[in-house]
Specification:
By secondary structure, the protein is an alpha/beta fold. The chain has one domain: 3-Layer(aba) Sandwich (Rossmann fold). It is 38% helix and 15% strand. The chain is built from 8 helices and 7 strands, in the order αβααβαβαβαββαβα. The longest helix has 20 residues.
C-alpha cells in the first residue's frame, strides 16, 4: 500500500494547496497503516434518508428530502456493493451501523443544530435495497455520529477477532469520520474506500478524506482495496 501523500490522483487534488501537502509530506504525516489479517466491513447509514429513492442532483433531492445527499450517495452504491460481494466471498464479517429513529427523549445537541433530521418518515430509515443486509449480518442502531458511541460495535468486533475496519457509507465528514477516529483510538487499522463514502458537500468530502488519510486511516479506491483484500493469505 503506497503512501497516502504520494502523487497519485486524489479526491483532494486542487482543494488542499500544494504548499500544505508539502508540509504534511515533510513532517511525515499519512504513512500507510495496512490491512490486518481479520478485516470487517462497516456499512454506515446507507438508508434512503441519506440519498432519496432515485439519483438526482442534490439541490433537487433536498427539496423532497432535506437529509438526502442526492446523486453523491447513489454514485457510492455500486462500490459498496462490490465490497459487500468481496467480503461475503471471503467469509469476512459485515456489520451495518444505521441511524435509528429517535424519540423525544433521544434528542440532543445534534438535533438542535439540525432540527430537520427529526422530520424523516419511518419508511425512509430502510436500508437501500442494492446494499441491504443479508440474514445473519449484524445491524446496529445508533443515535450519535460514531458507530461506536453507545453501541455494542466494539464488543462485536472483539468477539469476531477483527483487527481492521473498512468504513463505507455516509457522511464522509460526519459518521464515517467519527467512526474512523474512534476505531483508530482503539488501535484498529482503518481503511476508507474513497469512492464508497459520500457527503452532501464535495469540498467537505475531499477535505475530510485528506484529514483521515493523514491521521487515522488508509484512503484508497475500491478497486485497489479489493485487490489487496484478495491478495491476502
Amino acid at each position: 500500500m503506497t503512501d497516502v501523500l504520494d502523487h497519485r490522483p486524489r479526491p483532494w487534488d486542487g482543494i488542499i494547496p500544494e504548499e500544505e501537502l508539502a508540509i504534511y509530506r515533510k513532517a511525515g504525516w499519512g504513512a500507510p497503516g495496512g490491512i490486518g489479517r481479520h478485516p470487517a466491513l462497516l456499512v454506515i447509514d446507507v438508508q434512503y434518508r441519506s440519498m432519496g429513492y432515485e439519483p438526482m442532483p442534490i439541490a433537487q433531492a433536498i427539496e423532497a428530502m432535506p437529509t438526502s445527499c442526492g446523486e453523491h450517495g447513489w454514485r457510492a452504491v455500486p462500490h459498496i456493493s462490490r465490497l459487500l460481494e468481496a467480503f461475503r466471498e471471503l467469509g469476512a464479517p459485515v456489520l451495518y451501523p444505521y441511524v435509528a429513529p429517535k424519540k423525544s427523549h433521544d434528542l440532543g445537541q445534534f438535533e438542535r443544530k439540525v432540527p430537520g433530521v427529526m422530520d424523516v418518515p419511518l419508511r425512509d430509515y430502510q436500508f437501500v435495497e442494492p446494499v441491504s443486509p443479508r440474514p445473519g449480518e449484524i445491524t446496529i442502531p445508533k443515535f450519535q455520529a460514531s458507530a461506536f458511541h453507545g453501541t455494542p460495535l466494539a464488543s462485536y468486533l472483539v468477539g469476531l477477532g477483527v483487527d481492521t475496519v473498512v468504513v463505507t457509507g455516509c457522511t464522509t465528514s460526519g459518521c464515517v469520520r467519527a467512526t474512523a477516529v474512534d476505531a483508530c483510538a482503539m488501535n484498529l487499522k482503518v481503511v476508507v474506500p474513497q469512492d464508497a463514502v459520500y457527503d452532501r458537500s464535495q469540498v467537505s468530502h475531499a477535505v475530510n478524506l485528506f484529514d483521515m488519510a493523514s491521521k487515522y486511516a488508509d484512503v484508497l479506491p475500491t478497486d485497489e482495496l479489493i485487490g489487496l483484500l484478495r491478495q491476502r493469505p
